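Suppose you are handed a protein chain with no further information: no name, no annotation, nothing but its sequence. What can you learn? This example shows the usual starting point.
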Amino acid sequence: MARVQVAINVPDIDQAVAFYSRLFGVSPHKERPGYANFEVADPPLKLVLFEQEGPDRLNHLGVEVEATAAVAAETKRLAASGLATEVEDGVVCCHAEQDKVWVRDPGDIRWEIYT
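A reasonable first move is to predict its three-dimensional structure. Written in structure tokens, the prediction is:
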């Protein structure tokens, strides 16, 4: 199953965790200092919170896939379509080891496809 990821910057992680727990009716899947993520079943969503000050609230968007092979297939598809890609294999991100490919939309919003 694939699901959309929304990663946002929040000024207070504890307040944000309390709010999103109530909004989606689930507890965080993972919590670390300054970080939390939620795996929401309905709608299929991975919500990632980063505690960061500043005016920019959108950190990045993404699509979580089940296997590294799906990341590789998407990397080929994106490159074949003419999009510039940035590949990261075996990186530690969000307190987990991941394989991913990044692209940027015309407005410079970062999208990742990752395991």
